[in-house]
Sequence to fold (345 residues):
Amino acid sequence: MIKAGVVGATGYGGQQLVWLLRSRADVEISFISSHSNVGTEFDEIYGNYKGFLNLRSIDMNEISNHINNIDVLFLALPHGKAFELVELAYRNGVKVIDISADYRLKDEDEYEQWYGLKHGAPELLKEAVYGLPELFRDSIKNANIIANPGCYPTSSILALAPLLKNGLIDTKSIIIDAKSGVSGAGRSANISNLYAEVNESFKAYGLTNHRHTPEIEQVMSDLSREKITLNFSPHLVPMNRGILATCYANLKDQVSQDELYDLYNKQYEGEYFVRVLKTLPETRWVRNSNICDIGLRVDKRTNRVIVVSAIDNLVKGAAGQAVQNMNLMFGIEETKGIDMIPMAP
Fold:
């Protein structure tokens, strides 16, 4: 039995994580914590849990009293809030899966530049493994701290990884145009996320300064073995869940679409959670699943490749990937508890 603690349990990502863990016979949720809902029972916040889960949210200051009773600590907190808890868990031999951005960037100066605060535990950055299983599975298995990838980076990196690893594109030409559902902005009250503000509208945001940009550049630079600087343009669309990333790059040589499909099929052969499609992905076909759909086209006129990927931002983009990482860290079948078929309609 794996005993887990979930901090930040009442946000959208945290709730999705609780939903996945609660369905597991081999996982016990020992405690949940939420800064804004201390003392409140979980089923009072999310009515879908009535009769199924009524854990009371503890104060974050109480976590030190429970840390030795768990095997893994999940953190679904805003950036800058995970430092002390990661240190606490690490010192006590508890595995950590951090869904925030605090351990994704390897360079503490770059973290300060993009997030506007000093890193609170730079000595642990070297211990953190980037938790994208399809690319870093072996490192994840032996890790004690997992930096769970962001939702936009997950969809973008999986979309372009085969091209980067094989040196097929001009890395200076990469443009990522991505769209996300409103749940990606979190559950906190925000006027810009109100129904009347979002419905019947479509907007770009965070152009040139979105905090997922350095994360995407870092991993893509590692894959291509050269420094990458790219354009990342996120957009908000009026739907609850989903990310669609459309990624553009110039091909170095003439390569056919069929040849690229062969490359993608080889790269993701045997990957349960990546489907390489001949059609173009849609967010509705991955909803409530841990699956990433990928399709591509070659524009012969411009010698440009266009790769489209779709994920559920709360599952493969957050909680589902966190459980996938947990499974690997504890030597469990990787797909256990997250092998749901996408929900339709």
Remarks:
- The longest helix spans residues 151-165.
- Residues 112 and 118 are 5 Å apart (CA to CA).
- The radius of gyration is 20 Å.
- The mean pLDDT is 95.
